[in-house]
TrEMBL record:
List of residues binding substrate: H8, K12, T36, G37, T38, T39, S55, G56, H88
Role played: Catalyzes the formation of methylglyoxal from dihydroxyacetone phosphate.
Gene3D superfamilies hit by this protein: Methylglyoxal synthase-like domain
Ranges where the MGS-like domain occurs: 1-130
One Pfam family from the record: MGS
Protein name: Methylglyoxal synthase
InterPro entries associated with the record: Methylgl_synth (IPR004363), Methylglyoxal_synth_AS (IPR018148), MGS-like_dom (IPR011607), MGS-like_dom_sf (IPR036914)
Broad enzyme group: lyase
GO BP annotations, alphabetical order: methylglyoxal biosynthetic process
Annotated SUPFAM superfamilies: Methylglyoxal synthase-like (SSF52335)
Amino acid sequence: MKIALIAHDGKKADMVHFLSGFKNELQGVNVELVATGTTGSHIEKAGFKVQKLLSGPYGGDAQIAAMAAQKELGLIIFFRDPLDKHPHEPDVQMLMRICDVHNIPLATNPATAEIMIKYITTQLEWNQKL
Ligand SMILES: O=C(CO)COP(=O)(O)O
């Protein structure tokens, strides 16, 4: 399963902290990570293998939306910063709309993402044992 990761600048540290907490679980299952450019660089530095797309403001969110529309993603984790402005807000809205159009799970905060990651890693672990 492919998981897309995106974090606004004010939430990048939260993303790295979150993923690091699930490193063992994620490494034990068949999960591929894809991320917008700068988020991907942070994740890579934390020791994860990740496919990096364009930076968000340069089209990275749109690339993730295209992957979602083509059913290439099992889950999107997007830690948005609700206290900051973003020049590419239309792309952000478009990504969230595409997730709803195609019924793609989208976690926009760590509490939701934790529930999803725990569920997914348990299910994948179970399937890999079958
Ligand atoms: O802007 C973003 C999400 O809207 C994230 O993009 P970066 O990961 O390139 O900073």
